[in-house]
Every structure is written in C-alpha cells, then in structure tokens.
User: Fold Ser/Thr phosphatase family protein from [Eubacterium] siraeum DSM 15702.
Amino acid sequence: MRLQTTTYEIKSGKVSSPVRIAFVSDLHNSLFGKSQSELKNAIDGAKPDIVVFGGDLADKTQDDLPENSYILVKYLVKRYPCFYTIGNHENARGDSARIKQQMSDFGVTVLEGNGTVININGNETEICGIYDAHTYDEVNGELVNQLDAVTSEKDSKRTRILIAHFPEQIDEYLKGNFDIVLSGHAHGGQWRIPGLIDGVFAPGQGVFPKYTAGVYMHGDTAHIVSRGLWKPSTLIAVPRIFNRPELVFVDIKK
Assistant:
C-alpha cells in the first residue's frame, strides 16, 4: 500500500519559533521501499526537529526482532533527536525490556513513566511517555503510577508533549496537563469510507470507534491520533480499506 503523509498544525502561545515533529507509529516491522527508503526520504524531506516513535515498532506475531523497524531507527537517530514508548505489541511479545534496551543502545530516548526537557529552536519542551495510564511500575521499592509521575502544573510555561499509545485513554491523559498528546493503536479504524465512516473497528474502542485519526481538541490539549504505518503482510491479516499507511508530521506554530 502507498505511503501517505499528513501534516497537522497546532497553534501555541508557548513557542517563539516553529517546531516540527515526525510521528512514526504502528510500523509493526513493515517495510517501505528498500532499506526503508520511502520513510527515510519522506522524513528527511520534511526536515523535522525531532522524531517520535509511538509504539508497536514490533509485531506480536513475529518471534524475531523487528529488524525492518531497526533499519529506520538506526538511520534516523543519527540525524534527529528520537524518542520512544512501547505499544501493546511490544508488551504482548514478552520481550519489551530487550527492545527498549536495544532502542536505548541505538541512542533513542526511551520514555515510560518519565520525561525529559529539551530545547527545540529556542523553545523549552518537555517530552513524556507512558505505556498505559492504568499501569503501575515498581520504582525503588514503591509502586508509581506512570501518568502521575509525568503530571505537571497546569500553568507550565514549557510545551508539554505526551507519547501515549492508546487513544481511548484520553480522558486519563488530560489529567496530566499536556499541550499535545500523540497516540496510535487504532490503525485508522481499519476500514474507512470517506465522508461517511471514520473507521469501523479499533482495539480498545470496538465498533465505530471515536478516536481513529486526526486532531481532537480537548480544551487547550490537542490529541493527535495517527492511522499508523502497519500494512497487511499476510493473506489472513485484516486489510486496510480507504486507509493508507500514514506518516504524521506535527507543526507547532506561534
């Protein structure tokens, strides 16, 4: 299936100069051109300031490591600051710790119940990541809620971005006071009918899901959901209909 790129523009009073994010979600070890040439060219052509990997780089049906995804990661991390949180497929495989370690070894900042502050074009930006709003991790012998760990004051002067795979948990994410939330997982609702149905089914949301693709505004928080890059690789896989694999760019402008 042909790759589609989509750019969303978000207006913010917290930036003094533009910021561009490349959002790579739900790749599922799919391949786009020789050595991921299509994705590499699309991202380089857009000249993003950072790259965000929003989970499901790997696929739970595969026993081996996601080498096709790693080809892209190793290329991009040499050119852009890169950030990553796992998705449900890494978690379901049972080897998410190994994948997170490999991503860290590549030079990617792995976020799961934590965040980091960076300067992007003179803009102080906080990037946080969680796996699940309802997941608790044991840290220093104590149970810590991942979302609680990255929640900040509402009047934060810096731009706050949350990478969180499951769009259906948006009501929980809103408690964390983020300016932008980046999600995937829904695969665009699998089957779409332009102008009529924005998706037939999504995991975690069921039939005719609410959050499948695009920008959903919740007050001052922009929730951006990618249709994801997964493309069917076997005859038994559910096909995508009127729902091309999507690479998302987010432009934050004054």
DSSP finds six helices and 16 strands in the chain. The mean pLDDT is 93. The radius of gyration is 17 Å.
